[in-house]
Amino acid sequence: MGQNCTYVLPTPAIPFSNDDYSKYSQKYAGEIELYLEKDIAGLPSKNLKDYKQAYQRRSEFILGLVKEEHFLVEDGLTEKLNELVVKILDANEIREKERLRFLISRSGIPNAFTTGDGTIVVNLGLISRLQNWEQLAFVFCHELAHHQMNHVNESIDKRITLTNSDEFKKKVKASKRGEIRANQELTSFLEDNVLSFAQHSRNAELETDALGFDLFLKAGFDKSNAISLLRILDEIDEPKYELPSLDSVFNFPSYPWKPEWGVSHLSGLSLVKLSKEEQEKYSTHPQIEERLEQLIEKGAEVKEGIPVEICEDTPIYDLEILEHYYEGYKEFEAFILGLQLAQLNPKNEYVQAVVGNCLVEFSLARKEHRYSNLVPLPGRLLNETENAVATFLDNLSLTDLKEISNAYIERHGLLNHDDDLSVELKNKLKQLKEKK
């Protein structure tokens, strides 16, 4: 998926330090609230309530991420980010430079986005898929182009204009009266507008690629790295790592694997997903082939032997994502990533401790009737890897979970340490043994 790296996890793991986070979080929060006030002061009087609500929700979303320590501060990666940003901004005329904030999120989702208020976020999950820093620079240029063309705020405007239109209100009013034909007309109206918005968004993405490429070239970056980035994005929905064989990982002398644990009980209909044509029709992004063709027409070059610079740091990024999942109470995501990383380096104590803690947490959740809050139901909303793990966990009884947890903990000696995760594990096991 873009990288060809020799993968070795640090043992024991040393995740990034966010010791200075409070200083930066106060700074970010102050800036976000300041620009929210300025933006609201400049909103149109028509439909003002809706605009204020949309802008306030956006700020609340970003402030929530800040308060939950989603972002990295004061480390080598953010220093490299700042180098790239300075190079791009110095070479280009960008509107409202003073309000721009470039942030690295600890999320494992391979994505980047701009929020429309000057905040540009790139996730560690995307950076960990890249080969070199210039590919990251093109990501920033693309998001800067969204900012430059004010796409996010235009999208808010289109939605509010639609929902306040006489035609929309009329159809909603008729639908509320329970008229079958009126319901059909409203559904058709909404679908037409969804498709229209999707098409508009695809066109905007092509415009953004074109402008982003111009910003990228003016900053002096190699045009071939724009092409190599898009090729990585073409495979971005594929899992980064394979899931190990669950019947091997969870087969113990004291509690052998049971074949029924891996059997899916889903019907064919529950796994039906949109066809490729339907996905393309509703997609907000154009196909990669179309994006590549446009850049090649603008002079982008295809080169072999793309520089690989990020590989040596990828294991650290993966561990940071794992910690983010686990500390953020996303045990299901942490469990899957932990299994994948443990397969790459089974001796990593931190990874094994996360997997062990997740197993015991699943057991506690099953005992306390809150299991559905931690583990999603298998189905078409999950990818193949997620479905395999959700199916496995769903097939386990509470007794199975307890026995597997104990066997896994014993196999990896997870109670033989005095670190925070080991202490946490011991406390959970104590809770698990307590009667209701």
Notes on the structure:
By secondary structure, this protein is mainly α. It has two domains: 21-240 and 293-297, no CATH class; 329-436, no CATH class. The chain is built from 18 helices and three strands. It has helices spanning 21-41, 48-67, 76-91, 124-127, 133-148, 151-163, 166-176, 180-218, 224-233, 246-249, 276-282, 288-297, 314-327, 331-344, 349-367, 384-394, 398-411, 420-433, and strands spanning 101-105, 112-114, 119-123. The protein has a three-stranded mixed sheet with strand order 1-3-2. Strand 2 and strand 3 form a beta hairpin. The longest helix has 39 residues, at 180-218. It is globular, with a radius of gyration of 24 Å. The protein starts with 20 loop residues before the first helix and ends with a helix. The model has no long low-confidence stretch (mean pLDDT 89).
Compact description:
By secondary structure, the protein is mainly α. The chain is 59% helix and 3% strand.
Please give the structural blueprint.
Blueprint: H1 21-41, H2 48-67, H3 76-91, E1 101-105, E2 112-114, E3 119-123, H4 124-127, H5 133-148, H6 151-163, H7 166-176, H8 180-218, H9 224-233, H10 246-249, H11 276-282, H12 288-297, H13 314-327, H14 331-344, H15 349-367, H16 384-394, H17 398-411, H18 420-433
Parallel strand pairs: 1-3
Antiparallel strand pairs: 2-3
Helix pairs in contact: 1-2, 3-5, 5-8, 5-9, 7-8, 8-12, 9-12, 13-14, 14-15, 15-17, 15-18
